[in-house]
Known about the structure:
Number of strands: 7
Number of helices: 16
Strand order of the largest sheet: 4-5-7-6
CATH superfamily of the largest domain: Citrate Synthase, domain 1
Mean pLDDT: 87
Strand content: 5-15%
Order of helices and strands: HHEEEHHHHHHHHHHHHEEHHEE
Number of domains: 3
CATH architecture of the largest domain: Orthogonal Bundle
Low-confidence stretches: none
Shape: globular
Amino acid sequence: MSETIQMQDFLTRQAKVCRDNCEIEKDLYKELGVKRGLRDVNGVGVLAGLTNISCIQSSEMIDGEKVPCEGKLFYRGYNIYELVEGFMKRGDFGFEEITYLLLFGKLPDDKQLKEFREVLAQSMTLPKNFTRDVILKAPSKDIMNTLTKSILTLASYDENASDISMENVLKQCLMLISVLPMMAVYGYHGYNHYVNDDSLYIHRPDPNCSMAENILRMLRPDKSYTELEAKVLDIALVLHMEHGGGNNSTFTTHVVTSSGSDTYSVIAAALSSLKGPKHGGANIKVVEMMKDLRKKFGSAMIMITHDLGVVAEMCDDVAVMYAGHIVEYGTLEEVFNHTKHPYTEGLFVSLPNIHKRVEKLHPIQGLMPDPSDLPPGCAFAPRCPYATEACTKAVPELTSVEGSATHFVACSAYKDPEFRLGENKDGR
Length: 428
């Protein structure tokens, strides 16, 4: 018997021993009043630390009964809507301003914000050869593992890594805030190069750009991005900044800091918590579970989603629906690479693309029709840039694309020999 087989046999046997001897009876948690995690037995969130940094309101009391409400997020007492509206009205980026608010408990004035941005810009530097020797070496398909490795390694370059005085911890945190985007983007490029055989390009951040702008310029081969892309990413960064003491990864920071551990260890622990399949890694785990079900049972699966990335990852055949009707159907390759319906095209051109620069995104104009009162003819016609008079006369039927046995489109304009979508001017 080979060593590998012996080891596997040992692990199988001893894993059973662990399960038999190490399980805690679930009734004991209730009997002794011990919390099982960040949720009690009724699924209600457990208070996992006190904070005056942020607050989430997901329910309200009505007639003595707790009922769900529209979610509200507060940073240092400010409603997130007010904060976002404030910097958007000024035409400014908000990440740096809100970071200041969360760290110091108050909004900065113009002078304070300018100084804070300069401090962050000065910290956008990794140690010499760090990118080559740490980030690009042994790249991982899991970006969280890449970040965790990089952060722990940074401690080796810090002579005062274990100094937990307020001043030093603040210095370390500001540095980590500044370099985390670099480590994430470089880790992404490293994996794409060494594992996916893609081109490798490493761009340095621009100290005159916002955090959102720098992320985009480091991602793109030509450093290009649109203002809309940067503004959308900036808002996303703000909305994901802090979610209170009951959040799993935030709670982890409370636990680890309580031991007096250093900043690098604390953040690495929080990242490890964040990547778990019951927290930040939940979406990936669901996709993996569906793939496993398909493989294990050899069964077909119908997926309904608005996420085209998940469609690309999971599906063999794709049906695009609008107002309750299929408007395009085909294989994944046909629908994604040889789009024939204007609505399908609208879905793709409204999405940002890491590798492809466009002057601006093109959202589909207008609103969805009332399902109970659809317009005559094609339901998409009022929003379609290619619509003709014929489109309003009758509901188009699914028609084979150039005699294809797998690719079909429901479009009156498509019957015109001169009809070509903007993305398909080559006639494919």
